[in-house]
Amino acid sequence: MKRQIQAGRPVANRPNSVIKPLAYACVTALGLGHVAATAQQSGSQLEEVTVTGSRIERSGMNAPTPVTVVSTEELSYMAPGNIIEALSQLPLFYGNTSSQDPGGFFTSPGSGNLNLRGIGTNRTLVLLNGRRVVSSTRFGGTDINVFPEAMIKTIESVTGGASAQYGTDAVTGVTNFILDTEFEGVRGHAQGGVTSRSDNENWEASFALGAPIGEKFHVLFSSDHYEADGVFSYEDRDWYKAWGVVNNADPSGPSTLVRPYVVSTTATFDGLISAPGTPLHRLNFNSEGTGATPFVNNPAYSGLAHSIAGGTGSGDFIGADRPNVAPEYARDSTFLYLDYDVSDKLTLFVQGIYGNSTTTSTNLAGQFQGPFSPMTIYSGNAFLPASIQQVMDDNSIASFTLNRLGHSSDLARAGASTVQDITLSQQTVGFEAELDGGGVFDGWRVDGYYQSGKTRTRASQIGGIRLDRIHMAHDAVIDPTTGATVCNVTLVSGLYPDCVPLNPFGRGNMSDTAIDWVTGFEPGQLVNTPLYYTQSGYDLGLTDTYITEEAKIARANIEQEVFEFSMNGEIFDNRRVGAISVAFGAGWREDKMNQVTRSPIEPDGNMDTGRYVPANDAALGIRGQPGGDVNNTVAIQYSKVPNIRGKMDVTEVFGELFVPFLMDNKLDMSVAARHADYFGSGGVWAYKVGLASQITESLRLRATGSHDVRAGTLADRYDQTGGAGSVTDPFNGNVQNNIFIAGGGDPNIRPEEADTTTIGAVYQPSWANGLSFSVDWYEVSLEDAISSLTSQQVVDQCFGGDLDLCGRISRIDPSDPTSAINLVQATVRNVAKANVSGVDFEVAYNRSVNWFGGGETVGVRLISSHLSENSTQGFNSPVIDRAGQLNGFELPKDKIVANVNYSNGSFGAFLQARRVDSGYRDVLQVEGINIDDNTIDSVTYLDLSLRYGMEVGDGMWELYGSVNNLTDEDPPVVANYGFFGATANQTNSGLHDVLGRRYTFGARFSF
């Protein structure tokens, strides 16, 4: 009994796989122009399909929940290469993470996570053929890049809450990737692509096979591979002009100004001296390191950055040295499926998936500025130019602070980069059955499956700066006995005899051996160490044994087991109005993770009390070690990644009811409910009610109301990953402390709860066959949202009497309450609120035309989304509505995609326009007061795809070519300056195209 599975329930066999335009329009007012037109031309009979959004098998035209449906063929026209890039063009998604915008190192949710409505990838449930997929990282969400693209038929997104039907994570909806498990034959494709700048070269190939084995078995196999070169330069992209935001020195004008050519005033590639009150203050070394000249501040600006437009002022374009325009990326996927018809009423199946994706990006090549890791240069330094040494001698200057950043010619020469490698494997066994024999369950469908999945994540920090060594390496002196340049620590005490002196002045003046000594590790060493976990210390008694590599490695294994059983069918058939249908079932799921960081200089991973950077000790010759580094719990710069271990499980029961009230589908109602019992959180209910009414032959109204839940992810429960920051200490006169921040996961975090409402209409005018419209208003209100308190909130609430939070604050001297705070755990709690609302509009028109001799079809489709509100409210904080903010967020108020698909025999053409609305740099800023220009321009991209098919023997071949960003539109200026990296970031690569015009050519075959 071969049946397709859509979102967890069976769908009866269809004579063919073409989805008819009427069924699409009844559900979503969507038209896949080329598919619908082909169906009309063939004259095949219209059929109804069951779509995602309900576990009850029934016609899509009765579904009250808005559903957006696209085929992989259409997505390949929109963005050939990666499904995530094409889905990101759809207006219902805001802020997907993709291979072009993969997120931060060690903290990324993955390179292919979907984000419906823009309130978090972990609030969008992703299904593969109706079943869950193991998360790609501890942050939740699934990397769809490892899905078997060659076997995906359609992708359906429920754009309303669906926790009652499908469980936790479905707060904003569900996206279901439906596999073509009925496929028989052979098909595949190969393609290559490149930008008009001759970079980002990429290629892709896929192969799929489906075949019967005897009369009972059916087997499917597919394999996909894609890879793309990285773009780490702005060469030939003259739109980059280092646009940033600077402080206005004129008190009568706006406080901040948007300007081009923004650079740091605090650090340079060659080294900027900080020595207040001395002649050396604000001298900047030349690139040869042989001398220094005064750093010139542009008087029009104040603060940590200024603009040097017009040639006024000093500084380096730090962000242009090694930019991540597009990371290097590769993915593979292999899929195997086998089913066996025990009888015409029972089918057994097994399924296996293996996928891998690898993203490589440039990494910070060492920052030595500000409060954390400035370099202290002592008089007598062996590399000091004579002119600088003379000033120090003449003015009795014992030392000065040098602020500098790593350059591609020196500290980045070690290949400073980060690599995130995600491998997913998942195995499923299950059955599909139809009951017979009479009685109340006659004709019911029964499904069940057991699934085991595992994700292995390997994050590598290559060329990381060793804080335990670099300050000793640049403290170089002349050995009075031999005249050789040596490290001061070696001369004074003989410690670190392998220390290699490092020249920190100018750029490109560090020797290879010095760079090697202060970056990465010595590979090939055996390490055997006990493991310290943030939740339990050494109590687990676990150890780790490995051979060292040059990189610091964070390895995480995430495992998931799922069991689910469900039934659906009719319980009463009233011939006047239709049948009452029911679905119910139960499920159990367990997720667990084990993350271990491999760093030979932080071997046990003690991120609580471990101190791995040597403290200053004059007797040993160790000096100039910054207090921030000494008191930090890591020795590789900016990579606090602790060992984490934990698990969670949930047991669920669910049910759904469909009741028609009036004949001919004039009015019907669907009700769903789910009770889930979460580990550490207790029980919680999710429920949903939907109404649909056929007002006239052409007009159907629909509405839903749902109460949805999301349980805490493994990161919410156990994560302790940290970073750098600062707090004011109310216990000590509000003095400011520079601190390190650790995450504060809570194993007993409560599920967050949301109420979602949708109201919409579908209009299919009888006077225009093939034309359909839909409009839907939605609102999502989220309470008790899982969020982290800021480090300052933790300190302030401890001061207010919260003793639990006081336990999350560490001081340099734990016995002295007046000593400086050096570590704060930013604890996770149910403290936030969020509200999202907007309107979705879609129109589709499909028809036959006679423009060039007849036999032609044309399809027109427009999808738009208006975002009215996307607000959040943290603990004791005001409501902030970010709708329209394009800097730091990807929330344009309007997104529109419109395309035309034309077919004429063997020839086809696809033309698409994508518009991203204008917006604000920051919704909290007032133009003319806080900033002089708070607007970000809109942009419209054009894409063109042409194809030509031909019969070859018993098969079909199709040649195709695509041009994305046909007019080579520059990305709008999204001015921003990052003080942490001292870089001017002028784009939002998650929203706008930064690669420019690009070409793809390839061929498909099937037989």
Features:
single chain, 1007 residues, mainly beta, 22-stranded antiparallel β-barrel, disordered N terminus
**How would you state the average pLDDT, rounded?**
87
Quaternary structure classification: single chain
Rg measurement, Å: 31 Å
**Proportion of beta-strand residues:** 35-45%
Distance between the terminal alpha carbons, to the nearest Å? Answer: 25 Å
Unreliable residue runs: 1-51, 58-62
Shape: globular
Which sheet architecture does the biggest sheet show? 22 strands, antiparallel, barrel
Share of helix, binned: under 10%
Given the structure, what is the number of helices? Answer: 13
The helix-and-strand class reads: mainly beta
Number of extended strands? 52
Can you walk through the features of this model?
With 1007 residues, this protein is mostly beta strands. It is 8% helix and 45% strand. It contains 13 helices and 52 strands. It has a 22-stranded antiparallel β-barrel. A five-stranded mixed beta sheet has the order 3-6-7-4-5. Strands 14, 21, 22 and 23 form a four-stranded antiparallel beta sheet that branches. The radius of gyration is 31 Å and the shape is globular.
